[in-house]
Design brief:
about 180 residues, alpha+beta, 2 domains, 3-stranded antiparallel beta sheet, 4 helices, 10 strands, about 30% helix
């Protein structure tokens, strides 16, 4: 949302669409619309109910008014103030050299590959990238450099981990990097 945003309006989504959040495959149930001080729409997102609630919480903490339209109520966030939004990061080990990765490095050196809103989404993708890396290694030709690349990718993706954003081993820089890439 932009700095001009005064209000976030949450409207029921009356048509078939997917949630606009990256990697979310859920059906959009809500239109989140940023509105300026004159009531003009600035931007609109189609969101599933989970992401609509998360956007509303985040924007409310920024001092923006949250209004549910089409249902005749204003969202009450007094009970939400103490909640901390936790996301999950799919993390990969750092490189020590070209095609050499260090899965035993401290988590503070690992790279955030992607962000998820639930641990199950993260684990599903983590399992998928591990399986693809193992399959790629199994199917790679014995000649160089294809085999070395497949081995390196197997180490990289085979050691992928899902870590919650509030894990104390993560650095501030890692968290900020993930926020800017979302």
């Amino acid at each position: 949302m932009t700095d001009d945003t005064k209000t976030i309006e949450l409207w029921p989504c009356g048509y078939d669409a997917r949630c606009n959040v990256r990697n979310c495959k859920a059906k959009a149930t809500t239109l989140a619309r940023a509105v300026d001080r004159q009531g003009r729409p600035l931007k609109q997102y189609e969101l599933c109910s989970v992401h609509a609630d998360q956007v509303a919480q985040r924007e409310k903490l920024k001092g923006r008014e949250i209004v549910r339209r089409g249902v005749g109520q204003t969202v009450n966030f007094r009970h939400v103030a103490a909640l901390t939004l936790v996301v999950w990061y799919l993390m990969l080990p750092p490189a020590t050299n070209t095609l050499v990765f260090n899965p035993s490095a401290p988590l503070s050196e690992w790279h955030i590959n992607d962000t998820y809103y639930t641990p199950s989404e993260c684990e599903e993708d983590c399992t998928h990238v591990r399986e693809r890396a193992a399959q790629r290694l199994q199917n790679s030709p014995a000649r160089w450099p294809e085999r070395d690349i497949a081995k390196a990718m197997n180490v990289l993706f085979g050691n992928a981990q899902c870590i919650p954003s509030d894990d104390p081993r993560l650095t501030k820089k890692q968290r900020e990097s993930a926020e800017h890439n979302d």
